[in-house]
Specification:
Blueprint: E1 7-11, E2 32-36, E3 55-57, E4 64-67, H1 69-75, E5 81-83, E6 88-92, E7 106-108, E8 115-117, E9 127-129, E10 134-138, E11 151-153, E12 158-162, H2 166-171, E13 177-179, E14 184-186, E15 201-203, E16 225-227, E17 234-236, E18 249-251, E19 256-260, E20 278-280, E21 285-288, H3 292-295, H4 299-302, E22 314-322, E23 325-333, E24 337-341, E25 344-348, E26 357-359, E27 364-367, E28 381-383, E29 388-389, E30 405-407, E31 414-415, E32 429-431, E33 436-437
Parallel strand pairs: 1-2, 2-3, 3-5, 4-6, 5-7, 7-9, 8-10, 9-11, 10-12, 11-13, 12-14, 13-15, 15-16, 16-18, 17-19, 18-20, 19-21, 20-26, 21-27, 26-28, 27-29, 28-30, 30-32, 31-33
Antiparallel strand pairs: 22-23, 24-25
């Protein structure tokens, strides 16, 4: 064994290492240790003596039970990076209100079974990842002392109470990702986001949030994803978000959004949602005509898939120093949203930049389907079902050549099904049921694959 050994990496899916693996601490002290997917069922005992560790990953093992007190005490001073994700951990042996690692930059506890109150991270923390656990109780206001946080993922826990307002005021100047999806948070969304806001992703979906969307979100000029779906937001359509230059994904589904969607001024270049590629307003209380004024402005939805990048997510790379060493840490964050596509609710764990979806279903829209909806040539899913739309199905929908799902059901549409739609070779779901359509169903290509349920409830069809 070598006295100056500083790095040990053992990674092997399906490999099994003995639980009593031994490293003689009198010969060397490790600084970086990765024991990933090695089928450990407990913390390796030799870690008791590794008090110089600055980087440790035990990701993807089968470690059960508590995070030992001896491990916390041994690593308290020097640890910078700790990844214990994808294990079966249930708690800290010594209950903690504050995490004890004074210099920790990155902590990943995701995909465990950790319970109890959420510990407050130290002020040094850059990445705090605790998703898919059983943490409960309120989110402590002390979290706002971690003013260096870049990545905060609290999703899929049992946290409740209000989201502290200081997250908008104090942390938005450093945060790039705020994910609180799938908790029990109530009250209003923090109303004040700082003018130095750096947020790229805000996901507050599947909670019990109320009130209005904070207009201070316009300070977040880098924002790409805003998902507040499945809450109790009570507001009009936030047309003011159209001024945000980077916004690509807007999810407002299953809320209390009401009123008309006002037509943007034709001469305006700052309120058109030009980069928007996914918008989901389903299951709200919107009225009036479909927002055809925006169909010319949603430029990203007019691009064909062939002109789109295949990049799947944002990538965050952070740098920090540790004594004589220079460290980097990269965190890839995949946007996760729930949208209705092809007739059922689907969770998309990774939203490719080629995905384009328009869902205005289950509102109270009236009037016709405007012809210029055919300008949205990049769409893969279009859902206008369960409204009060009248008139014919525009043949211009045939221009959306990459369309995979088209749902116009449960309206009052009349006339013929345009034969031009048979050119939509990628169409997997076509639903025009429960309308007032007449005469023959077009034949050929994809139309030969649709069953009778796609056309049910049209008595003269």
């Amino acid at each position: 064994m070598l006295p100056n050994l500083q790095l040990l990496v053992l990674t092997g899916v399906g490999l099994t290492f003995p639980q009593n693996i031994s490293i003689n601490s009198s010969l060397f002290k490790l600084q970086s240790l990765h024991l990933e997917s090695c089928n450990f069922t407990e913390f390796p005992k030799f870690l008791r003596y590794q008090d110089k560790l600055s980087e440790l990953s035990l990701w993807g093992n089968n470690i059960t039970g508590n995070i030992p007190e001896w491990f916390v005490n041994t690593t308290r001073e020097n640890l910078l990076f700790l990844n214990l994700s994808n294990n079966i951990l249930t708690s800290f042996e010594q209950p903690l209100n504050f995490l004890p690692w004074n210099n920790l930059k990155v902590l990943d506890l995701s995909d465990n079974k950790l319970r109890g109150p959420l510990p407050t991270p130290p002020s040094s923390m850059l990445v705090y990842q605790v998703s898919n656990n059983h943490f409960h109780g309120v989110l402590p206001h002390h979290i706002c002392r971690a003013t260096s946080l870049v990545y905060l993922d609290l999703s899929e826990n049992n946290l409740m109470g209000e989201i502290p307002s200081c997250i908008g005021r104090q942390l938005s100047g450093s945060l790039q990702v705020l994910n609180a999806r799938g908790n029990k948070f109530g009250g209003v969304i923090p109303q004040t986001f700082s003018k130095s806001c750096k947020l790229k992703v805000i996901n507050l979906s599947q909670n019990q949030l109320e009130g209005k969307l904070p207009k201070s979100l316009v300070n977040c000029t880098l924002l790409e994803v805003l998902d507040v779906g499945s809450n109790r937001i009570n507001d009009t359509f936030p047309s003011w978000l159209g001024s945000m230059p980077m916004l690509q994904v807007l999810i407002l589904r299953h809320n209390n959004i009401y009123g008309k969607i006002a037509t943007p001024f034709p001469s305006s270049v700052g309120n058109g949602f030009h980069r928007l590629r996914i918008i989901d307003l389903s299951y709200n209380y919107l009225i009036g005509n479909l927002p055809s004024g925006y169909f010319q402005k949603w430029v990203a939805m007019t691009d064909s898939i062939e002109n789109s990048s295949n990049s799947s997510s944002s990538y965050f790379l952070m740098y920090f120093f540790s004594r004589s060493q220079f460290w980097t840490y990269g965190e890839k964050y995949n946007y996760v949203v729930t949208i209705t596509n092809k007739g059922s609710e689907t969770v998309y764990p990774k939203i490719l930049t080629i995905l384009r979806v328009l869902d205005l279903s289950s509102n109270k829209f009236t009037g016709i389907i405007p012809k210029d909806i055919g300008n949205l040539r990049g769409l893969q899913a279009l859902n206008l079902s369960n409204n009060n739309l009248v008139g014919g199905i525009p043949s211009s929908l045939a221009n959306i050549t990459n369309l995979e799902s088209l749902d116009l059901s449960e309206n009052m549409l009349s006339g013929l099904i345009p034969r031009e739609l048979t050119v939509l070779n990628f169409l997997e779901v076509f639903n025009v049921s429960h309308n007032r359509l007449v005469r023959a169903i077009p034949e050929g290509e994809q139309f030969n694959t649709f069953d009778n349920s796609s056309f049910a409830g049209n008595l003269a069809l």
